[in-house]
3-deoxy-7-phosphoheptulonate synthase (Mangrovivirga halotolerans), 264 residues
Amino acid sequence: LVSNKWKVNPTVIDLGDGVIIGGDELAIMSGPCSIEGEEQIADTIDFLKSQGVKIMRGGVYKPRSSPYSFRGLGIDGLKLWYKMAKEAGLKIITEVMQVSQIEEMYDYVDIYQVGARNTQNFNLLDELGKVDKAVMIKRGISGTIDELLYSAEYVFSGGNEKLLLCERGIRTYEKASRNTFDINAIPILKEKTHLPVIADPSHGIGIRKHVGEVAMASVIAGADGVIFESHSCPEKAYSDGQQTLDFKESEKLVKAMRETHKLR
Ligand code: PEP
Ligand code: MN
């Protein structure tokens, strides 16, 4: 069902209030790795608004390698974030880690993110197939492109067609970067599926000074959107500061991506 053979026209997802993914415009989503508190949310909102970025990312349920790392503010953090984002006219994308969170998060999210560690959590995918809200599935840590497409098939066949796919890098033998961003996945996914394809250069390379280069390559490769991590002070971020852009760097990147997208 997610194949281009089944549906020729590209899927366009309308989040309301004129926010559209998969159309002619490049969808830009940005914000911190983790939602940390009121001041950080406010700083990020002000910045995104100044750039005309309409979708804010951030985690309130964080899948951390170590259980002792910051694991997110949970549902109360999401409620606070939602209230502030709504007032500012921004949409929210945030990760859902388990089935029991779907319902409690429902009123406070615009896009449910399925993280790389949950790409093949088939129970979660089944349940998200029944929800009337957009879902972005990230490629699994060691997942193939076909496995990502089968994960999408779970959600789509359940009845939820508001689906986005995200290339976020895969694990290889290469240790020079956090993950190996698979630029090939972008044109291949665009050829195979009608779903919008989003690039995550932040987790894709994991090195702040190179995030912009991978982001630009993704735009040229045909991505429908880019999601990247930003923070007023990356050095103080609770998670993933090493791959997070400050607002000055983010502004430069947003401008460059939009200009390049126009030439595509
Ligand atoms: C994230 O987007 O913050 C995240 C945890 O990503 P991934 O699931 O790709 O590791
Ligand atoms: Mn992160």
About this structure: The mean pLDDT is 97. Strands lie at 13-16, 19-21, 27-31, 55-57, 91-95, 111-114, 134-138, 163-167, 197-199, 225-229. The chain has nine helices and ten strands.
